[in-house]
Amino acid sequence: MPELPEVEVSRQGIEPGLVGQTIESICIRTAKLRWDVPTDILLTHGHVIRSVTRRAKYLFINTDVGSVILHLGMTGFLRVFAQTTPLKKHDHLDINLSNGQCLRFNDARRFGACLWQAKDADPHPLLLKLGPEPLTDDFSLTHLFELSRGRTCTVKQFIMDNKQVVGVGNIYANEALFLAGIAPKRAAGKISKARYALLSRYIKQVLAAAIKQGGTTLKDFSQVDGNPGYFSLQLNVYGRTGAECLRCQTDLKSQMIGQRNTFWCPSCQT
Fold first, then answer.
1. Which residue of 120, 149, 259, 263 is surrounded by the most CB atoms within 10 Å?
2. Is 1.10.8.50 the CATH number for 143-264?
3. CATH top-level class of 4-127
4. What is the reported pTM?
């Protein structure tokens, strides 16, 4: 499933081909993805794409009348190429541009979404309770500590909760906790301010490194140019059950926490 780095890599990949271009038409081939595709997106016909932005794992194609919001779901991906490019199975949506190019959305499992945000309207309901972006100053070194007091859930579940901070998906939660030396099963409310400061720093570091490497490809994700994400070559613990820790050579452990695979070193993480 694409996480924040993969979505940001997708944004960076499609942005050069979209900004400054006029939307000629939008072709909706599948009326329902995760939710119904709103026909309001057709209001963008004839309008210039001003920017392509991201909030959490949502991408915004911004025009003067509003924004088409795209979510990649579990298997979605975006490509910019000629409108004459032959269709493939699961090509659900085209945003056709006046220069003959198009943005095409493919999603095999249909867990992705295409939504609408009118200009100057209240934020879409799906965006209302999102926490701060982890790579901005809004996510401070004390943010997690202050929110964690009294919380009994595991620290891994806590940092993956989008109400606390957006975009710390399963892969990157595992990696940040390893680098910070924090056992993922520890109660969120029992971790010190100093250790949360360290964890916050590593969350930023891991996400920034993953974006720089084009994201992480484990199964479905690929960059806009079709290349895989190379951060998978730098994973310390994720997916390495039974392998030796790269720091101390202890065998890595795994178990399900909150219905997600969790990986850690029982020696390095306490």
1. 263
2. yes
3. alpha beta
4. 0.90
